[in-house]
Design brief:
It contains eight helices and six strands; from the N terminus they run βααβαβαβααββαα. By secondary structure, the protein is α/β, with parallel strands linked by helices. Strands 3-4-2-1-5-6 form a six-stranded parallel beta sheet, sandwiched between helices. It is globular.
Length: about 240
Amino acid sequence: MPTSPSVVPHHIAVVMDGNGRWATRRLLPRLAGHKQGVDSLRRCARACVERGVGVLTVFAFSSENWNRPADEVSGLMDLLAKALSREVPQLHKDGVQLHFVGDKASLSEKVREGLQQAEAITAGNTRLILNVCFNYGGRWDIAQAAASLAARGEAITEASLDKAMALSFVADPDLLIRTGGEMRISNFLLWQCAYSELYFSDRLWPEFDEAALDEAIAAYAGRERRFGKTSAQVQKSSRSTGSRA
């Protein structure tokens, strides 16, 4: 389903839900679903590059996921380490700049070093910024921003908080996609998604392919983003600038 480049969202955020259910339905261990989810993320990143998306932010591991069974958490950590060594060279070749966003203090030194190395290798790439939110929570993000401002003795305002958020180096998401049929954002980008368009897909994340991404972008393209204004104001501004609001 082709879409006009003028209405492709600059920043897409994704809650990649359904890996475990995908595996369970196939009588496979849950970790097999997470491995398949890595393949889906690879496809999604490449598709975003091809469609002219500037930023892709994905929810890979939430701060609440530590409460999952210990063997699943351990498997996810091992999967992250293996994915870094396997995927980073190709992402680098594709022009993807990697950032890992979240509380790294509770991660092992080996994992932290792997994340830092991946960021350093891809730092000069410009075709797509890929933010992987790992051990991340929206409430944690707001709290750490407020704490950093307080520690510096700065006033806590909307503007200062915005600059202190973990994703302050990119614009807020235009489109938030959640797969897996659930209709909630689950503590993901609570600050940044204040005006994001929300799109919920019944497909489990391992099943979310290029066609599904195009469907989400097409749905976004058909919406009017008002940011508190009236429809008449938006249409007037759009006519005067020659672009879609």
